[in-house]
Write a structure and sequence with these properties.
Length: 373
């Protein structure tokens, strides 16, 4: 649209104003003021219109700004029922936090160099390779969304050029059976308020949110089964389904039965199995456990490690992995392989058949170790 305005009544001056919009909705505006006559303004009209059209073409080629794409991505992902609410929030929060420097740039202007520089900065900030990989997945998803929605000219996704060094696998933290017993005995002896929570975690393999949401209506003392279908989300402060999305059952052992009956007697009118401890609903369970372990002389562990301890001890007692998978609520056996390795059952005793050293030399070593010189 082209319009010519007259302003300043005392000394008439004219301006040329151009406002054009493309089919995709992009807009360019240009204005020149100060012409003394209408004819001078009209002479600039065509020139200004051509400049505006050129700018609009350049904008079309460059695509929308990164901020615009992020905003639209957030709108789109908020309707995706295949993703959990907190996952959708995490996706958008990660993009906004780590790509702030891209916000005013056209998405097509972001190059492989920019992408690599971004992840180099994340490494400098101390983000783990695993965390960076998750961010890359989100950025790939956003870039694909922009391409599908026609928000950019065709081009290669710059984030695909980012490669990561091989991350050294860390041995997951775990407690031995002796350390587990020491943890529970020490907590029980001093009547620690978190004792029943830790004991339940170690006897059921339940996640933190599942423990918090567990109610006595879920406990079947007659059939010695816990039916687990709910979990508490500390971020949204609400009850939701379990992480796997389906219900499962956990057998009640003799030790667990004693604990549950003790809790039932102390519960009074409380519907939940475990006491409502201060700060638990806000996610303080890990901090409390680490502090206790340090005082008790135990390895400082995460709360989730209690679940790992449960799985590992069941494996060592010979429980088939498929049964542990069902009890713990894992969708596949991939996670189980970690705990199988920790338990050592795949390699335990496999070298016992080796008979390489002379018998006298072997016996001599044994004597020197246990019976002196």
């Amino acid at each position: 649209m082209v319009r010519i305005y007259k302003y300043e009544n005392d000394a008439p001056l004219y301006e040329v104003y151009v406002n054009i919009r493309s089919r995709s909705g992009r807009r360019t505006q240009k204005r020149i003021r100060g012409f003394k006559t209408k004819s001078e303004a009209e002479k600039q009209e065509t020139k200004l219109l051509r400049e505006a059209e050129r700018d609009l073409i350049e904008k079309e080629a460059a695509g929308e700004t990164w901020k615009y794409v992020v905003d639209k991505f957030e709108e789109n992902i908020s309707k995706n029922e295949n993703l959990k609410a907190h996952t959708r929030l995490d996706y958008v929060a990660a993009v906004r936090k780590h790509t702030e420097g891209f916000m005013n740039r056209p998405i097509s202007s972001i190059t492989r160099v920019d992408a690599k520089a971004l992840f180099a900065e994340l490494s400098t900030k101390g983000l783990s390779i695993g965390h960076q990989k998750k961010i890359k997945i989100i950025l790939n998803r956003l870039h694909a969304f922009a391409a599908d929605e026609g928000m950019m000219s065709e081009g290669v996704n710059p984030f695909r050029a980012v490669e990561f060094p091989k991350e050294e696998e860390k041995v997951p933290e775990i407690l031995s059976i002796e350390e587990i017993r020491l943890l529970l005995k020490t907590a029980r002896d001093i009547d620690h308020p978190w004792y029943p929570v830790w004991a339940m975690a170690l006897l059921t393999g339940m996640r933190n949110g599942e423990l918090y949401a567990l109610a006595f209506q879920d406990v079947d003392f007659d059939n010695k089964l816990i039916t687990l279908s709910r979990s508490y989300n500390t971020r949204t402060r609400s009850i939701k389904s379990t992480k796997s999305g389906y219900w499962r059952q956990i057998p009640i052992s003799a030790e667990l039965e004693v604990l549950l009956k003790e809790l039932k007697l102390k519960a009074g009118t409380r519907k939940e199995v475990l006491p409502r401890l201060p700060g638990w609903e806000k996610g303080t369970q890990a901090k409390v456990l680490r502090a206790f372990c340090q005082v008790a002389g135990l390895p400082s562990i995460k709360f989730h490690t209690l679940r790992a301890c449960f799985a590992t001890q069941l494996i060592r007692t010979g429980v088939p992995p498929i049964q542990i998978q069902k009890i713990c609520g894992w969708k596949d056996l991939e996670t189980m392989q970690i705990y199988i390795r920790l338990a050592g059952i795949e390699v335990q005793g496999v070298t016992d058949g080796l008979k390489l050293l002379p018998e006298t030399e072997v016996m001599g070593k044994v004597v020197s170790l246990f019976g002196g010189q």
